[in-house]
Amino acid sequence: MIRKTVYVILVGLAVLAAAVAVGTLHNGSRQLLVPAAAGPAVDAVAVAGRLAAAVRLRTVSYETPSAESQAEFARLHAYLERSFPRTHAVLRRETVGGYSLLYTWPGRDPRAKPILLMAHQDVVPVAPGTEARWHAEPFGGEVRDGFVWGRGTWDDKGNLMAILEAVELLVSAGFEPRQTIYLAFGHDEENGGTDGARAIAALLASRGVQLDFVTDEGMLITDGILPGLAMPAALIGVAEKGSVTLALTASEPPGHSSMPGPRSAIGALAAALARLERAPMPASIRGVPAQMLATLAPEMVLPQRLVLSNLWLFGPLVRRQFERMPATDAMLRTTTALTVVRGGNKENVLPGEAVALVNFRLLPGDSIEHVVAHTRRAIHDERVRIEVMAGSTEASAVASSDSASYQLINRTVRELFPGVVVAPGLMIGGSDSRHLAAIADHVYKFSPVRARSEDLPRFHGTDERISIANYVELIRFYHRLISGAAAPS
Question: Domain 44-229+398-408+423-485 adopts which CATH fold?
Answer without folding.
Answer: Aminopeptidase (3.40.630)
